[in-house]
């Protein structure tokens, strides 16, 4: 069943169907989840010697936390999870292109290796 | 007439019963051109911010002037980040409210989003002022130029978002955002969430990862 975007459907005639269903609870729980991840991120700064992310694990842990936050916002708040797949593909085109282009650029400048970059 | 109207799915009904929750626009893709355009714009923004973040990574070890971790105030920036994160919640609640036809509630949530965004910007201005006082000007080092350009560009994006939010409230007060135009709020919301997503990356890469 298809409805065009410019059809005016007054919510008052929908027998309460709209009122009864709400995604708000999901959004609030998602925000709490994101806040907890942010607290963990800040904790890595306050306690850099914590066993979970001590030494070389700090950067991977921060990257994972960042990625989880990134995709949670993308899929829940930006509705990619509920929307048409073409939008996901469109966004990933830009994202993947950016990641590859800038990994190539960072590699050109030898950022992955110790020592001078010049 | 009533039967015709009730037989049509709303966003909420579609969400409850279908895999993909949206109302189809009368375009080839079923997505309105405005929404498609916004997603395309956001995809291109990945390249813009990717470039700025990469430049920062290349120049983050300054040859002169203060180093990042001498001047960063992580507790302060963490609070700003939290404020921006919560603004995403208020924004999505505004979209949810307009989908239900609750205009007053939508205006309240959008107003809250704008206030949280303005708080973030105020924090950024304060942070820049402190850094400048401590000797980190835009031209002090390549690090400072890259840092101010990256975070400044993000701040400009937030400011543009605040202007869009205030415009939405004004339009709504004049009755120009009926339920069938709820997508306008969603599109502004997409922009706002993207600005938040970019800050998630900046906060981790610029502020938290040690030199």
TrEMBL record, chain A:
What is the recorded membrane topology of this protein?
Answer: Multi-pass membrane protein
GO cellular component labels: plasma membrane
Q: Where in the cell is it found?
A: Cell membrane
Where is coiled-coil annotated? none
Assigned keywords, A-Z: Cell membrane, Membrane, Transmembrane, Transmembrane helix
**Membrane-spanning residues where?**
26-45, 57-78, 90-113
Write the protein's name.
Answer: Unannotated protein
From TrEMBL, chain B:
Which topology term describes how it sits in the membrane? Multi-pass membrane protein
GO terms for molecular function, please? cytochrome-c oxidase activity
Q: Which GO terms describe its cellular component?
A: plasma membrane
Gene3D superfamilies cross-referenced by the UniProt entry? Cytochrome c oxidase, subunit III, four-helix bundle
Q: Where does this protein reside within or beyond the cell?
A: Cell membrane
| Membrane keyword on record | yes
* Alphabetized Pfam families for the sequence: COX3
Which stretches make up the Heme-copper oxidase subunit III family profile domain?
1-211
- Which regions span the lipid bilayer? 39-59, 79-96, 108-126, 146-173, 185-209
Keywords assigned by UniProt, alphabetized: Cell membrane, Membrane, Transmembrane, Transmembrane helix
Question: What InterPro entries does UniProt report for this protein, alphabetically?
Answer: Cyt_c/ubiquinol_Oxase_su3, Cyt_c_oxidase-like_su3, Cyt_c_oxidase_su3-like_sf, Cyt_c_oxidase_su3_a-hlx
Spell out the family assignment given in the record's similarity comment: Belongs to the cytochrome c oxidase subunit 3 family.
- PANTHER family (alphabetical): CYTOCHROME BO(3) UBIQUINOL OXIDASE SUBUNIT 3, CYTOCHROME C OXIDASE SUBUNIT III
Give the protein's recorded name.
Answer: Unannotated protein
